[in-house]
């Protein structure tokens, strides 16, 4: 077993992380990132990436000391990561956390980060009778549906979250298989499982006596979500208790997916810095238009349109404008409205017309 620890470098870890520690264990890169600040709260991101397997990311709120310690103790690589956890969590040492005035969002749209989502999910599901809650985001390829990334908001027993990810259970989870193709809520007892299945064998050990699953989908994105709530009570009592709030929980599942997809698109749009005229051009090309159609729409010359195409291709790392339009559509940059002021739209069109 080879283990090499590295401090944070400019190209490692989330760009807004205040601390990052990384290790290479059994051919996998495991990174621990602390994000947030003392005024708004901290969260931990544990990312694992290896060859020929999806990227797995666990998100944990760092406010509850007992939960944090349980997360560390149950990490499959705990003996190897002990010092790295300590170094990463020095960021949230006593005195840096300001609990007073903590944000208590009521809707996902009010959340600024995954830490806010964790607070919302935990409070909401507890009010609905759940003892444990987890939310999964699955990024799947458009062709073939292969999962390339799995994110999990840990609002329940960390021991379950670690085991679920470490054993790659999400790749053969019947609830995930259901969520891929369906939007209907699912009772755990309705799953047809062999007696030795890991959910039946390991679930109750982690407080998952009764489980409900709430899939979430968007028509314009391949990312899908799954809210998993549970109670230690065995079915049918435990399930019936949660099932009464299925409409509320289903709404939460959709909100959490919506937040993730829109946040990802906003971040990508910021990185690409697509202008209003560029988005208009991409939309028209994606719909089958050519340079002449774009010129007529933007009221500019075709020469200026071709200059616009070159700029777009450079941003999207494409050789042809049709490839750029396809990429932009896959990333969701053409399906959401462009937030721009009318005067800015006119100014952008005027500016580009002056280059013709």
Topology, please?
Blueprint: E1 5-7, E2 17-25, E3 28-37, E4 41-50, E5 55-61, H1 65-73, H2 78-89, H3 114-127, E6 132-140, E7 147-154, H4 158-166, H5 174-181, E8 186-187, H6 198-202, E9 210-216, E10 224-231, H7 237-243, H8 246-272, H9 276-286, H10 291-298, H11 302-316, H12 321-330, H13 342-353
Parallel strand pairs: 5-7
Antiparallel strand pairs: 1-2, 2-3, 3-4, 4-5, 6-7, 6-10, 8-9, 9-10
Helix pairs in contact: 9-10, 9-11, 9-12, 10-11, 11-12
Features:
ten-stranded mixed sheet; 2 domains; Arc Repressor Mutant, subunit A; Beta-Lactamase; alpha+beta; 356 residues
Question: Could you explain how this protein is built, in words?
Answer:
With 356 residues, this protein is an alpha+beta fold. It folds into two domains: 243 residues, Beta-Lactamase; 80 residues, Winged helix-like DNA-binding domain superfamily/Winged helix DNA-binding domain (Arc Repressor Mutant, subunit A, Orthogonal Bundle). The protein is built from 13 helices and ten strands. Strand 2 and strand 3 form a beta hairpin. Helix 9 crosses helix 11 and helix 11 crosses helix 12. The longest helix has 27 residues.
């Amino acid at each position: 077993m080879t283990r090499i620890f590295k401090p944070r470098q400019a190209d490692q870890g989330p760009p807004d992380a205040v601390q990052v520690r990384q290790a290479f264990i059994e051919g996998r890169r495991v990174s621990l990132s602390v994000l947030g600040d003392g005024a708004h709260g901290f969260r931990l991101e544990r990312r694992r990436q290896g060859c020929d397997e999806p990227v797995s990311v666990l998100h944990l709120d760092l406010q509850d000391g007992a939960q944090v310690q349980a997360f560390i103790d149950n990490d499959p690589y705990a003996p190897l990561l002990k010092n790295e956890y300590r170094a990463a969590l020095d960021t949230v040492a006593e005195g840096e956390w300001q609990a007073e005035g903590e944000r208590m969002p009521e809707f996902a749209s009010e959340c600024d980060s995954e830490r806010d989502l964790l607070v919302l999910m935990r409070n909401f599901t507890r009010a609905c009778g759940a003892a444990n809650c987890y939310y999964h985001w699955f990024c799947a390829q458009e062709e073939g549906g292969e999962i390339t990334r799995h994110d999990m908001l840990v609002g329940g027993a960390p021991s379950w979250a670690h085991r679920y990810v470490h054993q790659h259970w999400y790749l053969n989870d019947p609830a995930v298989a259901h969520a891929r193709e369906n939007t209907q809520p699912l009772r755990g007892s309705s799953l047809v499982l062999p007696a030795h299945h890991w959910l039946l064998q390991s679930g109750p050990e982690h407080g998952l006596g009764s489980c409900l699953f709430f899939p979430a989908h968007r028509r314009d994105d391949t990312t899908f979500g799954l809210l998993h709530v549970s109670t230690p009570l065995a079915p049918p009592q435990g399930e019936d208790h949660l099932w009464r709030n299925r409409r509320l929980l289903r709404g939460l599942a959709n909100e959490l997916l919506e937040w993730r997809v829109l946040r990802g698109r906003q971040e990508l749009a910021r990185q690409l810095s697509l202008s209003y005229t560029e988005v208009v051009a991409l939309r028209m090309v994606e719909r089958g238009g050519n340079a002449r159609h774009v010129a007529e729409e933007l009221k500019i010359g075709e020469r200026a349109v071709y200059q616009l195409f070159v700029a777009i291709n450079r941003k999207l790392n494409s050789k042809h404008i049709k490839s750029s339009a396809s990429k932009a559509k896959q990333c969701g940059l053409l399906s959401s409205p462009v937030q721009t002021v009318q005067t800015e739209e006119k100014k952008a069109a005027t500016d580009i017309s002056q280059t013709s």
